[in-house]
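ugh finaly. both done.
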Amino acid sequence: MIVYLLESESDPSRKYVGITSDLAKRLEEHNRGKSIHTNKHRPWRVVVSIWFADPNKAADFELYLKKGSGHAFARRRFW
């Protein structure tokens, strides 16, 4: 599984964190407006992608990045 961080090219203040098994396909879906969370700020670009062999660890890391200290960590280290 892949945890990925996106940044809007039209509004770089807009960020998104997600998880997928196929990053190219998922990015295409974001850029085609298939996600209600990202369709207003297209196009998107991948800032970071992290591959995990264990899907549970990937899901845990995604949740971490979306909350409190993990959100701050992503802001300091990735954006």
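ok and the 2nd:
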Amino acid sequence: MFTDNRHPEKGIMSTVLGVLSVTALSLSVYFSYVNGGQAIMRYAAAAFVAAIFSCIGLVLGIRSRFEKDIFKLFPNLGIALNLVAFLFVVFILVLGLG
């Protein structure tokens, strides 16, 4: 494959942050469920950090998507994962208000 395209570092970092966010949120919800629905402060802190990571990852993914001569796999994957994590946080907050 003869091309000058490259994988952008911001896109790779966005994907890593997305995987971390989705994993941390999933584990926080699972461990809260196992604990009888009571969220320990550690789980809430992990979910808060995951929300911050997803926001940062979303910005990195969008910024890397606009670079020239890149493969778009990692930016698109990072945007998708971080968007899922961010919407999951919003969903949890809306459930908590009700």
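summary for the 2nd one i guess: The mean pLDDT is 92.
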